[in-house]
Amino acid sequence: MNVRPDFSKNANHAETAPAFLSVWDMHAYYGESYIVQGISFNVHEGEILALLGRNGAGKTTTLRAIARLDDPQVNKGEIWLDHKPLHNMKSYEAAGVGLGLVPEDRRIIPGLTVEENLKLAQIAPPIGWSIDRLYDLFPRLGERRNQEGVTLSGGEQQMLSIARALARDVKVLLLDEPYEGLAPVIVDEIEKTLRVIKEQGMTTILVEQNAVRALQLADRAVILDTGSIVFDGSAAEVLENEELRAEYLAI
Amino acid sequence: ASHSGFTNAPGDSSVTLGFNVPQTGPYADEGADELRAYELAVEHLNGGGDGGMMSTFSSKVLDGTGILGRKVEYVTGDTQTKSDAARASAKSMIEKDGAIMITGGSSSGVAVAVQALCQEAGVIFMAGLTHSNDTTGKDKRANGFRHFFNSYMSGAALAPVLANAYGTDRKAYHLTADYNWGYTTEEAVKSSTEAMGWETVAAVKTPLTQTDFSSYIAPVLQSGADTLVLNHYGGNMVNSLTNAVQFGLRDKQVNGKDFQIVVPLYSRLMAKGAGANVKGIFGSTNWHWSLQDEGSKAFVKSFGTKYGFPPSQAAHTCYVQTLLYADAVQRAGSFAPCAVAEALEGYEFDGLGNGKTLYRADDHQCFKDVLVVKGKENPTSEFDLLEIVEVTPVDQVTYAPDHPQFQGGALGTCNNGA
Amino acid sequence: MGILEVKDVNKRFGGLQALGDVNLSVKENTCHAIIGPNGAGKSTLLNCLVGKLIPDTGSVLFDGNSVLGRTPFEICQMGISRVFQTPEIFGDLSVMENMMIPLFAKRDGAFRLHAIESVASEAELRTDAERMLEEVNMLDKANMHSAAMSRGDKRRLEMAMCLVQNPRLLLLDEPTAGMARADTNNTIDLLKEIKEKRDITIAIIEHDMHVVFSLADRITVLAQGTPLVEDSPENIKGHPKVKEAYLGEAA
Amino acid sequence: MDAIILQILNGLDKGSAYALIALGLTLIFGTLGVVNFAHGALFMIGAFCAVTLSRLFSLSHEVLVPGETDFLGNPKTKDVPYIYDWFGESTGAAIIDWSVPLAILFAIPVMIAVGVIMERGLIKHFYKRPHADQILVTFGLAIVLQEIIKYYYGANPIPTPAPQAFAGSFDFGAMLGFDPNTIIYPYWRLVYFAFAALIIGAVFAFLQFTTFGMVVRAGMADRETVGLLGINIDKRFTIMFGLAAAVAGLAGVMYTPINSPNYHMGMDFLVLSFVVVVVGGMGSLPGAVLAGFVLGILESFASMREVIDIIPGINQVIIYLVAIIILLTRPRGLMGRKGVMED
Amino acid sequence: MFGLEKKDARLLLLVAVLVAFAPFLLNPFPEGSAMAQFNAGYPDLMQRFVIFGIFAIGFNILFGLTGYLSFGHAAFLGVGSYAAVWMFKLLSMNVLPAIILAVAMSGLFALLIGYISLRRSGIYFSILTLAFAQMMFALAYSVLTPITGGETGLQLALDDPRILGTSQTAGGNIPVPGLFGLEMRDSAELVLGSWVFTFNVGYYFAAIVMLVAFYLSIRIFRSPFGMMLRAIKSNQQRLNYTGLNPKPYTLAAFVISGMYAGLAGALMASMDPLAGAERMFWTASGEVVLMTILGGVGTLIGPVLGAGAIKYMENIISKINSDILHGWFAFLPDGLEDFVVAIIYPFIGKGWHLTLGLIFMGVVIFLPGGLVEGGQRIAALFGRKKASDDDSGKSAKTEPAE
Ligand SMILES: Nc1ncnc2c1ncn2[C@@H]1O[C@H](COP(=O)(O)OP(=O)(O)OP(=O)(O)O)[C@@H](O)[C@H]1O
Ligand SMILES: Nc1ncnc2c1ncn2[C@@H]1O[C@H](COP(=O)(O)OP(=O)(O)OP(=O)(O)O)[C@@H](O)[C@H]1O
Ligand SMILES: [Mg+2]
Ligand SMILES: [Mg+2]
C-alpha cells in the first residue's frame, strides 16, 4: 500500500508540484510532554526547506520524529517519503529508503576512528559518496582519518557528521544546525556543497539559527513556534516580511 | 505460650518440632533426605506407618501416641547452609511457631551456630549431620546433642584399616578444606595415621570456594607421597576426588607402591556425585543402609517403602535423633529442656542401627560403632555405591572428654529459657 | 602584565602539534576573543588553562600564579570559570539545583560536608540564583529537569552557572552556537553589562563574527596551533590573511 | 624448575577455562554493555546439555534379573538402554561414552536458541535501562534458570565423565627429560585447552575480520545514530547474544568432565568471570582472554605449598589481590577501552 | 518538624507509625488459622526488617545518590558484627559500646577501602569493592579463624573476660546483650482473642535506631551534601570545573554508608550475638544491591521496602512445606487438592528461590521504579488526594537522581 494519500484537500498551503516528503498532522511527545502539536507540511523533490523557530520551538523534535527515532514518540500523524509510509518504519528502515539526518549534537560514535565512523555509514545500503570523495570535500577529515572521532575539534566533528550522512545515498537530507561551530569559510564551503547536491536532485530540510543565511539558500521556509506551524511559504517572503521576522525570528 | 517455666511449653494436644535443614544451596539434596526422615519419624511417633525403628529401639516407652500423649507436629525451615540463615530460621521456629526442639543441618558451622542459639533460647538442639570435633568439643553446649560421629572417630576407625590395607610405611599428603571442620579432620586423621607409622609429607589448605583442584593435585606426585588424603566434604570432595583421578594418580606407582587416595568422611550423595571415581577408595561413614542389624533393616524398609529408595546416613541420624528426643521426653515425663537433657545424658540404648550407643554426659556426644567403607567396584544400583569394609567397635573410637582435640569450651548448664 | 599570561605553550597529540609556542596575554577587565579555523587549537588552549589538559611545555599564569599542576577544581577556585563547547550541565538535576551548586562552591570552597543542613533553607543563595536566572531569562524554567531543555536553553543555563560564581576570568567556548538570534543578542547584552558592572575578564571563542565584533576588545587569531595575529577588532576585520584563512565572505 | 613448569601448565589450563567463560561474558557485558548476571546460568545450562544428552543416550527400559532381589527384597531389575537395543551393545556403549563430545553438537543449537530467546524476550527491553535494572532482571533470571535445573536434576553434582579414550594423564616430564611422574597432565585438560584456543580463535576471527564487531561496538556506544545509518542493530545484538550464549554453553559442556556439574556451578563462576572481564578491561576481548590466563597462572602459583607456607592464606585471596593491583595500576584494566562502563 | 519539609516529615511520621505498630500490622492473621503462616510479626523477623532496612538505607546513600555501585558493602556489615561481638566478649554485654565500636571500625575500613576503590569509577569501582570484600570473607573464613571464629562464626563463650560485666550468669549461662539491664530478647505478649502480639525490646531498640538512621538519611538527601552527590552522579566533569572536589564527597558518602552497614552489623550482633563470615560473602553484598533496586534506587523509603520484601520471602515463604499446603487446600476434593498443591509446591519451601527470582524479574519488568513505583500506582488508584497524601514514593521520586 505504498501510495501517498492525497492531503491536498486539507493542506494549508497550495502547491502544484507533487510533494516528495509529506508530513501530515504529526503529534510528537517526549513521554508526557506534548511537543509537536499537529503539524503538516510538504517538501518537494529537489527543494531546500528552511525550518526555523526559536530555541525550544520543536525543530529538532520534528526532525527526529521524521527520522523515526525512538524519542519523540509520534502518537498520531503520517509521514510519507516518495510514496512510502515512513510513520510505520523504524529509524533504520527510514534510513534504508533514503532518509539522512545530521543530528544537532553531531553524534560522533565514541571508540571509532574518523574513517570507521564513515565506514559504518556504508555498511547498510544504499551507499552514497565514496569515502575518498568525502575527504576531498573535507580535507581536514582526510588528515585525521585515524584519529578517534570524538577527539576532533567541534568543527571537525560537524564536518564528520555531515560527511557521514553523505556517505549514504540519501534522498532527503535533514540538517539540524549544520553550521554550528564552523568557521565562516567552512560554512561557505558547505553552503556551496548544499547547492551542488541540490542541483543533483537532493531534497533538504535545513534547521538553522542563522535564519538569514538559511533563507538565502532555501526555496521555502516553515516557521515553528511552540510546536505549531506559524508560517509556511517561500523563503523570499520571509526575508521580505519584517513583521514575521521580528515576531518569530527576532531579526 | 503460658508460663510453665520453660520456653515454648506445648499445649495439651500437640507439640511442635522444628526441622531446620538446608533446602537450598549445595546440600539441598542432603537436606531433602533429612526432611524425609523427619517426616517418617513424625509419622511413626504419631502411630502411623510400620513404626520403623520404634520396634527395634531398646527403650519401649514410645507407643505411637505422639510424645507424652501429644500429637507431634512440625515446622520446616531452610538453613541455606549459612549460619545466619540457619539461626534466622531456627529463631522463627522458636519465636513464631513455638517449636520446643530444633534439629537438623548438614554442616558443622550451622550446627554450632544453631546449637548456641538453642542454648540461649532454652530449647533442645538435636544436631543433624555435623562431623567437626568442635560441635561436641570446644563449642559444646548443654542444650545440644550430637548423634553423628566426628572427625576424631573417623581417624581412629580408619587408621587401622588403612594400615591393614596399605601397610604402615606410607607417606601421606593431605589436602584440607580451609575451615574448622577441615582442620579437625586433618588433625584427627594425621594423628591416628601417624600413630600407625605413616608419615605426613605435607598438608595443604584449599579454599572453600575452590572448584578446580588441579593446581593442588598436580604437585602431589612430585612430593614423594604415595597416599592422598582428601579432607574435603560435599562439592569440594566431589571435585578434588574427580580431579585426582583425572590426573591418573591411582594408576601411578610411588616408592614402589600403588598410589592411594583416602576420603575420611564419605556420604552416599557425595559418592554419587563423584561417580566411578570413588571405586576402591576408603573412607568412614556414620551409617549405611546395607547394614544388616534389625534396626537398620527396619528403618530401610519403612523409608524405602515410603520413598522408593534407601535412606542416606543424614536421614538416618535425623530420624534417630527425633526418636531419641521423643523417648527422652517420655522417660523424663516432661518437655522441660533440662529434664530432657538429663534423660539423655549418660543414656545407653541399642537398636537404632549402630549397635550399643552411649549419649555421653560430659559432652553430649554419642559413642557407637563406626563404619569404614570403600567405594564399590561393581555397583548394582545408583544407591549401592559403598561397601562396608569394617565395623569399628565403639571402644576403638572412644576418647576422653578432655582429649586434646576436644579441648576448650565448656558445656555450661542447661537452659530452660523463659 | 595581564591577568592571564600564556607563555610558549606547546601541546602535541601524537604526531599532531595542536598548540605550538602559544603566547597570549589577556588584560584585566577586557574581553579577549580567540578566533581561528576549525581545529586550530582554540578549545585545546582553553583546556590547558582549566587543567583539563597539561601542556607539554610552557607556562600559564593567572594573576601571577601558575595554574599548571593544579586540578580543575583548584583552578576554578582561583577564579576561572568555563563554558564548554557542548553544554555540560547536571542533567539529572533541576535548573535551580544546577544554579545552587556553583553558589555553594563559591561560598564554601572545594569541599564542605553539609550533610545535615537543608538546601531549602539557603535563602540567600537562592535569591542569588534567582537573580541570575532572571538575568538570563530562565526564571520560569527554574524547576525544570535540566536534561529536558532544548539545547539553546542548556547553553544559557551553563553560562548562568559560570556567571553566578562571579569569576574573575570567564572562558567561553562558543557560547552562542545554536542560540536563536534573539537570545544571542540578549547574551551579548548580558555579557556587555556584566563586563561593565563587574570586575571580570572574558576570553571568548566564537565563530559568529557578530558576537566577536560586538564584544571583543582584542582578538587573537589562531591557526594550526600558533597565533597568527593579535590586534584590535577593526584591524582584524581588514587583515587579508585572516580573511583568507578564516573569515571568507563573512567579513 | 619442574614444579614451575607444572604450575604454568596448570595455570594455562585454568586460564583457558577462565578465558573461555570470560569471553562469552565480555561479548555481552563488555560489548553490549549489559550487566548479565545470568551468564553463569548459561554456562551451567551448557553443562547440563551434556548431562541431558548422556541421560538421553542412557534412557533405558527395565529387564528382570532372575534370582536376585533389591534392598527391599523385591525382585531385582536391571536397566538396559534403548540405545543398546538399536545399535548393539558395543556401539551403544561407545555412544554413551562419547556423550560429552557429542553434546557439543547438541549444545550449539540449544544454546543459540536459549540466547536468542533470552535476548528477544527479555534483555532487549533493558539495553536502555540503568545497569541496576539489568542486574536485578538478569539475577532474577539466573535464579529461575538455576531453580528449574535443580527441580529436574537435583542439587547434587552429576558425574559426567570424558570418554574412556581421554582418561588418565600424559607424562610431559618424561618428554622434557625430567623424571617420570613429575609433570603429568590429564588428557582431557589438554583437549579442553585446545578447544578453548579454537573457540577463542574463531570468535576473534569473526569479530576481527568482519565489520560485525565494529557495528556492535558502535551500536552499544550510540544505538540511535547507528540506526540513523540504516543499520538494524537489534538484529545484530540478538546474534551477538546467541553467540555469547553458545560460547558460554560450550565452555560448560567441555567443563563437565573436569568438575561434575551441579545447578549452582554458574553462580560459583559468575563473580570470578566478572573479575576476569573487568581486569582484562571492559570491551576488550583480548583483554578478557589475557586476564583469564594471567589470573589462572597466578592462582596456580599461589596454590603451591611453598608459597602458602610463606604467606598463609595467599591462595584464598590471590585473584582478588591481583585484580586490585592491576586495577589500581592500570585504570582500565589490562586492555580496556575508554568510556565503556566507566560511569 | 525536625527541620524537615512537610512531605518528608509526613513520610518520617508514617514510617514511625508503621514501625511502632509493626507487631500488630505484621500479625494480621489469628494464631492457628491457615493464614497464620504469613504472619511476620515475631521478634526475629521484625528485627531483621529494620536492621536490613538500615543497611539498605545506608547503601542507598552511596548508590542511590552518587551512582557508585559498591559490590562489597557486606564487608562493613561483617566488620560491624565482629567488632560488636568482640566488645561483648571483652567489655560488657551493653549494646552501646558495641555499637559505637562497630560503627567506628566499619567507618575506618570504609575509609581505607573507599579511599583506594574510589580512584576508579563505574564497573572498575564495583569490582575493586567486590575484591576487597571477597578477600575479607576468604580470610575471615580461614586463616583469621582465631579472630573471626572462621566457619562457625565468632561466638560468646562462658570464659570470656567481659571486664565490665560477668562472664557467666548466676545460672551458669552466657549473659545476653542488653541496654543498661534491659535485655534485648525480652518480650511482652498481648493476647487479644486468638491473636497474639509480641513486643520485643530488641525490636523496638533497633526500630528506634532505624528511625534515627532514616531521619538522618532524609536530612542527607535534602542537604547540600546530598545535592552534590547527585551532581556527581550526573556530571563529575562539570562539578570539577565548578570548583568542587568530587573525591571527598564520594568518599564521605562511602564512609557514611559503610558506617550504616556497620551499625546494621552491630545491631544484628546485639539481637543475636554471633558474627559469621558469610555475612561478608559476595552474595550478601549482592543482596543489599538487590534490596535497594527492588525497592527503588534513590528513593527514600524504597530500600527499606526492598529489604523487607526479600527478608519476608527468605523467612516466610521458605517455611511453607507441602504439609501446610495440604492443610490450606484440604477443603478441596482430593484430586483437585493434590493438583493445586502440585502446582504451588515448586514455588514454596525449598522452591522459595524460584519465587524470589520471579519477583525480581516481575518487579523490574512491570515496575521500573521498584516497589515504590508499585506503591505510587496503587496510591494513584485511590485518587489524587490520597496520592498526594501518601506520597512516600512521590517525594522520593521527583527529587532524587535517576
Ligand atoms: N528528551 C526530552 N524530554 C522532554 N522534553 C524535551 C526533551 N527534549 C526536548 N524537550 C523539549 O521539547 C521542546 C522542543 O525541543 P527541541 O529540541 O525540538 O527545540 P529546538 O527547536 O530544536 O530548539 P533549539 O534551537 O534550542 O535546538 C523544548 O521545550 C524542550 O524542553
Ligand atoms: N585528544 C586528542 N587527541 C588527538 N587529537 C586531538 C585531541 N584533541 C584535539 N585534537 C586535535 O587537535 C586539534 C585542535 O583541536 P581544538 O579542539 O583545540 O580545535 P578548535 O580550535 O577548538 O576547533 P573548533 O573551532 O572546530 O572547535 C584538532 O585538529 C583536533 O582534532
Ligand atoms: Mg534543536
Ligand atoms: Mg573548539
UniProtKB/TrEMBL annotation, chain A:
Keyword Methyltransferase found: no
Single Gene Ontology MF annotation: ATP binding
Positions of the ABC transporter domain: 21-251
Signal peptide: none
InterPro entries according to UniProt: AAA+_ATPase, ABC_transporter-like_ATP-bd, ABC_transporter-like_CS, BCAA_Transport_ATP-bd_LivF, P-loop_NTPase
Pfam families: ABC_tran (PF00005)
KW Hydrolase (keyword) present: no
Family matches, as SMART domains: AAA
TM region positions: none
Keywords: Amino-acid transport, ATP-binding, Nucleotide-binding, Transport
Family indicated by similarity: Belongs to the ABC transporter superfamily.
Protein's name in the database: ABC transporter ATP-binding protein
UniProtKB/TrEMBL annotation, chain C:
Alphabetical keyword list: ATP-binding, Nucleotide-binding, Transport
InterPro entries membership: AAA+_ATPase, ABC_AA/LPS_Transport, ABC_transporter-like_ATP-bd, P-loop_NTPase
Domain of life: Bacteria
Pfam family, any one: ABC_tran
PANTHER family: CONSERVED COMPONENT OF ABC TRANSPORTER FOR NATURAL AMINO ACIDS-RELATED
Protein name from the UniProt record: ABC transporter ATP-binding protein
Domain ABC transporter: start-end pairs: 4-249
MF GO annotations: ATP binding
From TrEMBL, chain D:
Chief localisation class: membrane
The entry's keywords: Amino-acid transport, Cell membrane, Membrane, Transmembrane, Transmembrane helix, Transport
Compartments (UniProt record): Cell membrane
Transmembrane annotation, as ranges: 16-35, 42-60, 102-123, 190-216, 237-258, 270-298, 310-328
Its membrane topology: Multi-pass membrane protein
PANTHER family membership: ABC TRANSPORTER ATP-BINDING PROTEIN (PTHR11795:SF442), BRANCHED-CHAIN AMINO ACID TRANSPORT SYSTEM PERMEASE PROTEIN LIVH (PTHR11795)
The family this protein is said to belong to: Belongs to the binding-protein-dependent transport system permease family. LivHM subfamily.
Name recorded for this polypeptide: Branched-chain amino acid ABC transporter permease
Organism: Thalassococcus lentus
Automatic annotation (TrEMBL), chain E:
Protein name: Branched-chain amino acid ABC transporter permease
Source domain of life: Bacteria
Pfam families referenced in this protein's UniProt entry, alphabetically: BPD_transp_2
Transmembrane segments: 46-63, 94-116, 123-144, 201-221, 248-268, 288-313, 325-348, 354-372
Record's keyword terms, sorted: Cell membrane, Membrane, Transmembrane, Transmembrane helix
Main location: membrane
Bilayer topology annotation: Multi-pass membrane protein
Localisation: Cell membrane
